[in-house]
Amino acid sequence: MSTTTSAAPPRAPKETRAARRVRLTDRTRKERNLGWMLAGPAFIAMVAVTGYPILNAIWLSLFDFRLTDPSGREFVFLGNYLTILTDGLFWQQFGITSLITIVTVSVELVLGFGLAMVMHRALYLRTALRTAILIPYGIITVVSSYAWAYAFSNTYGFVNGVFGLGEYDWFGGTWSALFTVCVAEIWKTTPFMSLLLLAGLAQIPDDYLEAAKVDGATAWQRVKRVILPNMKAAIMVALLFRTLDAFRIFDSIFIMTAGAQNTETLSFLAYRQTISRVMVGLGSAVSVILAILVVLIAVMFVKVFKTDLSQQRGDKK
Amino acid sequence: MKVSRRTQAFWIAGAILIIAYAIIPVLWIISLSFKEGDDITNKSFLPSTWSWENYKTVFASDLFTTALRNSVGMSLIATTISVILATLAAYAISRLDFPGKRLVLGVALAITVFPVIAIATPLFDLWRNIGLYDTWLGLIIPYLSYSLPLSVYVLAAFFREIPWEMEQAAQVDGATAWQAFRRVIVPLATPGVFTAAILTFFAVWNDFVFGITLTSSEAARPVPAALAFFQGASQFSQPTAPIAAAAVVVTIPVVILVLLFQRKIVAGLTNGAVKG
């Protein structure tokens, strides 16, 4: 591969590679080639479009760079990161993003579990139930955001009328505006969560529940002692997917509040810096920080997940 | 399990509650789209008089019709290419032994984890430099890379359940690896491919971030992005009711797909996530 090294060292690996190639049967080699022929195009499509922008974003994040003033581009190394991390606004938005994530994901977990239980147990209305639940899943996030924003609006909405709230302005304060955003998010994504939980629920043998019932366990005890421990894997997968997703919340913020009343999230900040304010350097730095945070959350989940699984295995010994 | 009548009544009540939960917001936006003129501010769930006015406004507006054309065109193209590439890749991953298999899966996972906005902003910069900004291709390419991981996982999960022996039997009978793929696996895998296509279409149809960051005009702007920039019939009229009508129009394909393929979508989502 390398063209600059001296002649002697590369020859050795070449020989071993050739030797290995001889050992490989014709069929194995064909299989390997076919493997890459088939997987290659998808691999290239994934890497080409994401690899370069990611590296480019990291590179640009080291510059003080405004799109409208290319000549003023200046290398500031970690300066952008310092600017962001010492800015109170960033931490406030980090707080808002985390709050939305924690609230929506926990409500979704409880609600999603209830939905999954009903889908699993209901003998009637099964098809209608699954069809209905897929509508929030499939609907465009922008559309659901508009539906909820208009429902809560004090000019167009029915919510104030139904609950007798008069002219209450949901979008006039941080907490009430965040509440509406959370409602919209929860409505749209609980079905996805519940389907993942349903997959876990379906894998619990009925005998377990039957046995618990015979032994006199109450419904609550059966949920707590039999169902939940046996679907830990499904719960972790659902939580991981949804947490990563919720932390990147953007569409509903953009449509429902546009970041007004201090409801800006980190994704929205990255967008505003780069696209609206054309501060490409600073915006890229926000993007990189956001990506690092998401990876950290993922790693944290996988760690907890692993120790959890090994503990379970330990219990059985 | 034996279920008493009372327990069953409890589950039915739960089911009805869930169905209401799922469709009330949709009914609300539909009802809103039929409110005419000042009726929009009547603050009740239903319109006083039902009117097609907003749909006429929306379809008379170039902004919406071009956006709809862009959305349909780009979604179909991206879904088709994505599913073809994912089918080939998933076959290789689930059936063949080749070095770098884990790399492909790892990259797919990394992309699903990486925030879209973190890709969109550098792409904005790059696309402007190479002339892909505000073009169909400029959106189809990122749609591809973002939908591929999902389709690869869903399809790999499906392919693992296809009986191995049939492919080997074909090869014993003298078929090459390629023929075994083409003649034996493809027909067995078609339902899975179909499911992956629906899920991919949903994902691409839903896109908003790329739509607003990588376009600046009607040339390539998809519907979700166009909705955010939508104006009323005149500059001074509120766009609320026309937005509701446009929102209903773009929800129709979703509802049709859900009604027709409910079983497949549920199977695809649960299989891909748990086994993938």
TrEMBL record, chain A:
A Pfam family of this chain: BPD_transp_1
Coiled-coil annotated spans: none
Subcellular location: Cell membrane
Predominant place of localization: membrane
Topology of the protein relative to the lipid bilayer: Multi-pass membrane protein
CDD domains, sorted: TM_PBP2
Domain ABC transmembrane type-1 as annotated: residue spans: 94-301
TM region positions: 42-63, 100-119, 131-150, 170-187, 278-302
Keywords: Cell membrane, Membrane, Transmembrane, Transmembrane helix, Transport
PANTHER family cross-referenced by the UniProt entry: BLR7065 PROTEIN, SPERMIDINE_PUTRESCINE TRANSPORT SYSTEM PERMEASE PROTEIN
Descriptive protein name: Sugar ABC transporter permease
